[in-house]
Amino acid sequence: MDEKDWLQKELRGTTDGEIPPEADLAIAQGIQRAKALRQRNRTFLTAAASLILLVTIFAAMVHVSPAFASAIRQIPGMEIFVRIMGTQDKGLAQAVDNEFFQPINISHTLNGETVTLNGVIADESRIVVFYSWSNAHSTSKRGPEVNLHPADGSHMPAIIGFQHSPVPAEPVTSGSDYLDAMLVEGTPMPDDFIFEVKLAGDDGPVWKVPFKLDRELFMNRAETIPIGKSVVIQGQTVTFNEAKLYPTRILLDVSYEESNTKQLFGLRDVHLVTEKGEHLPSRGASNDSENKKTLIFESTYFTQPKELYVEGSLVTALDKDQLTVKLDLANKQLVSPGNRIQLLKLTDRGDSYAVSLKLSGLDSSWDNMGYMAGSGTWKDAHGNTVEVSNHTSSRTLGEDPESNASLESFTIPKKDYGGVFTTTLQEWPNPLREPYRIRIK
What we know:
26 strands; Immunoglobulin-like; 441 residues
């Protein structure tokens, strides 16, 4: 069976219906009414029952059914995620197995295109929205455009990503995707949301699905572990302040000492290890400031290891007096640390300058990043911020390390800038190596 047929089988049985205008109120009221129905047979999980009844009853009983994880796998479109998460994000898979999931299972069809909001996983720091889709006329590898925002219209500071599982090699007519919103640390998780789907292409109508998080299920589960331990990597001090363990991820608060002679950028091979030797890879990082970072890891909330360590050996860094890149428009010259960035091309287009840069000699054994000087903030000779547009970047790899390069291009509007532009590097491929291991639990 090929991927296309498999996905179509995963999506069979989705219900279809319209969301009435009073759905938001009905969801809120229904959660209370549903508490009296907790002992009813769970077989309606895949039945074409009343859609609002599905939302309200599921939200109330999600954490009391003894066969919940098995039932989740029966929701059309969800089995694929349980399989994929078991290898890509075991923390989310464990959340499902531990009844930490709020089924919704609402569908809508327009002109042969069907979209189903399967359900959500959330905690104080993250919300993952699972949805599936099918379209007999699709010529795309991706599903419809989706969005998520608080029901009251307020702004929710978050890093939002999208995942299609698996990514098809050619156009398909069905798929299962999820929207992953990681809130900026300190941002409160809203109770009520609107999930939006743009149907029938860019000019199609927007389908809006209101839903309320089951706060009793999802919230007040975070565990904070104080650490307060430092490591020294080739003379540079890194302090691990505290860890926050959420059901969906672990956040590790890290700071670099102000007295360091080098600007530290990234702990590139950092990971968590349990007492059984299980490695929890990094899932990214956020830059709170130049000397304060938040590292993100897969969650161990439901496995509760007795011991947890942070390990690594490599950090990228650069002397603090070498962080500036200078671009001289008049003389078509660029100055960078060690002159490692080359100015490939500078074109006067009349109303703008087109700039192309190349950073060579990257080590493919540990460094697969692109280095984008043009994505930072540029200043002109007068200290004014310069607006950079049309930014693109790419990475080339080869057997010869000297052929490994990061390429980028961008456009600068043509004005009187005083001739010289400057920007401060936010990352640089200069490694400092020294193994470290700290127990955090």
